[in-house]
Amino acid sequence: MLACEQGAMRRTGELVQWNNKGGYGFVRDDTGRDYYVHISKVNASGGRPRIGDTLSFEVVTSRKGRPSAIDVGIETPAPVQPATLRNVTARPAHVSSYALGLRTAAATLMTLLILWAIGSERAPIWLGGIYALMGAASALLYRFDKLYALTGKWRVSETNLHAVDLCFGIVGGLSAQEIYRHKTVKPRFVATTWAIALAHTLGLAALAFGWLRLF
Questions:
Q1: Which residue of 31, 83, 97, 159 lies most exposed, with the fewest beta carbons within 10 A?
Q2: Is residue 64 located within the same domain as residue 98?
Q3: 57-80 pLDDT, tens per residue?
Q4: CA angle, 117 as apex, 206 and 104 as ends, to 5°?
Q5: Nearest Cα to Cα of residue 159 among 131, 130, 196, 185
Q6: Secondary structure string (H, E, C) spanning 84-122
Q7: Counting beta carbons within 10 angstroms of the beta carbon of residue 14, is it exposed (0 to 12), middle (13 to 18) or buried (19 or more)?
Q8: Distance CA 134, CA 170 (A)
Q9: Same domain, 168 and 97
Q10: CA 124 to chain centre
Q11: Final residue before a domain boundary, out of 55, 76, 97
């Protein structure tokens, strides 16, 4: 069952994510809020939407409580151009280049806790090396997965992404999600990512404040 939002009016937004095989994606309005959109809700006369299309739509709340777009029309088709990471990482015009995202803030906090724990000799130097090495590995996996998504190639599994993040790669994983604007919408993936981030933050805080010792 779908429930219309009270006082809802027709909106416009940019299609920022689209799974052509599955027929679903997300449209982002002028305020930066994302809405789930399914191909069944797109007017057939407009054809299949593509990332970058300007869509007009109405908003409803699904039975799962997720804001969704219905009666979707393609207002302005996006120009056909090769998908690149440059396009993905470019910030929207309304977002300041100095804006610090939540994921970047969390990654920065964990990095500071690592340095604090090592500097206070409550954690060994090799711990920082492990975080740096696995963080780089995680960032590369997210980069490759984003590239594969843009080119329609075989994807990196979500299980593997989470596994590397859990095994000390979370700092790089969060940073890559922010930079590439990748894996930041799907509720289950996002929830798991933040659970991993919370576990590492608490563990690092325990080391930094001396509540936990490795030696």
A1: 97
A2: no
A3: 999 987 777 889 999 988 876 555
A4: 85
A5: 196
A6: CHHHHHCCCCCCCCCCCCHHHHHHHHHHHHHHHHHHCCC
A7: middle
A8: 8
A9: yes
A10: 32
A11: 76
